[in-house]
Design goal:
By secondary structure, the protein is of the alpha+beta class. It has a single domain, classed as Gcn5-related N-acetyltransferase (GNAT) (Aminopeptidase), CATH 3.40.630.30. The chain is 29% helix and 24% strand. Strands 2-3-4-5-6-1-7 form a seven-stranded mixed beta sheet, sandwiched between helices. The protein is globular. 26% of the residues are buried.
């Protein structure tokens, strides 16, 4: 990715999850929820992120809760051979608005599986999981250097949530890299 892209963290919000598009997984792929022992799998998938090095401490801090709680929120994408190749989390928090809201986080697909359109059905599954828990809105915290992720979120109806002039400037600077929605 272009090293000229701004290294600015941004929030995006989806105001009505009922309007989020739905994409089916390709034949042979499926989603599964977190099980005991999946920390190593999560770390393996997240370690493919070029901008972040995950640790067990990162996981515990970012995703607090017992295994039953994790088993309802942390999801893995499994390929036709039964290998976990991606993960996404349908979390919830009050940090963003002061009220409980859905949160999409820790989205990753291993490099060998990227570019196959698997992010769309994975995000569909996470949005559906949030809707099933009664959430009508969600947000995602991401970075301007993640152009494919930004395009995916925009396509799903997430909108920039501007908190500063620096974020507004960063959004304007990446406009040439964004696909029209």
């Amino acid at each position: 990715m272009d090293k000229q892209l701004p290294d600015v963290d941004v929030l995006m919000v989806h105001r009505d999850l009922r309007q989020a598009p739905s994409f089916a997984l390709p034949q042979g792929y499926h989603m599964r929820f977190y099980r005991a022992g999946d920390l190593a799998t999560w770390l393996h998938i997240q370690a493919t992120d070029p901008y972040f090095v995950p640790t067990a401490e990162t996981f515990a801090e970012a995703l607090p809760g017992d295994e039953a709680y994790l088993a309802e929120r942390v999801m893995f994408l499994v390929d036709p051979e039964g290998i976990d190749i991606g993960n996404i989390t349908a979390w919830n928090t009050a940090q963003f608005t002061g009220q409980e809201i859905g949160q999409i986080c820790w989205v990753a697909i291993v490099p060998a599986a990227r570019g196959r359109g698997l992010g769309k059905p994975m995000l569909s599954a996470a949005c559906a999981a949030l809707r099933e828990r009664g959430y009508t809105q969600a947000f995602v915290d991401t970075n301007m250097r993640r152009i494919p992720a930004l395009n995916l979120y925009l396509r799903f109806g997430f909108e920039p949530y501007l908190r500063s002039e620096a974020e507004e400037t960063a959004w304007r600077s990446i406009t040439p890299y964004l696909k029209s929605t």
